[in-house]
């Protein structure tokens, strides 16, 4: 669907330029936009490589593991149904830490692993429930569990202390103060995260 929309927009622009005799302007705009896109990709590649490297150093040094342990009470509050020693908690905490630092690209792999781990947990619950071992409510196969929904909402709300990507965009396009977005971004993501947590807690009780 997106391919169709983009193709329609490009075709409409070319036809509009041809109709008004501005094909030269259309061609020049396409070339300049392509050049700008490549420059932006190079800028973002450098920033992404730097911060992903920082996250990798944090993991190898044990810093992420220690921060994950510190987040234990928070994770217990958000995900009371996950056992304390389950591997999904480490993936979830890594995802949250990366999002707080504004590293969405670094948060994605941990988020995918967390979802896979939560899926395995729910599969185990269904097996134990069929044997009468698990006394809780196991959701049917193909249905997201409460933990999955909660994690997805928290991941989307994405509390951010340092919106690295937005700062990079503003710097690339010549903003005189690229970091001016830090305060508003923190306030907006804090509110969205609080609302998301409240929503999850209300729906989980239902």
Structural write-up:
The protein has 206 residues and is an all-alpha fold. It has a domain of 144 residues. The chain is 76% helix and 0% strand. It has nine helices and no strands. The radius of gyration is 22 Å and the shape is globular.
Strand content: under 5%
Largest sheet: none
Q: Please compute the radius of gyration using only Cα atoms.
A: 22 Å
Q: Structural class of the helices, strands and pairings? A: mainly alpha
* Helix-residue proportion: over 70%
Q: Averaged pLDDT, please?
A: 82
Q: Ranges with pLDDT <50 over ≥5 residues?
A: none
First-to-last CA distance: 36 Å
Total helices: the number is 9
Number of strands: 0
Tell me the series of helices and strands, N- to C-terminal: HHHHHHHHH
**Overall body shape:** globular
How do you describe this structure in short?
It is built from nine helices and no strands. It has 206 residues and is mostly helical.
Keywords:
206 residues, mainly alpha
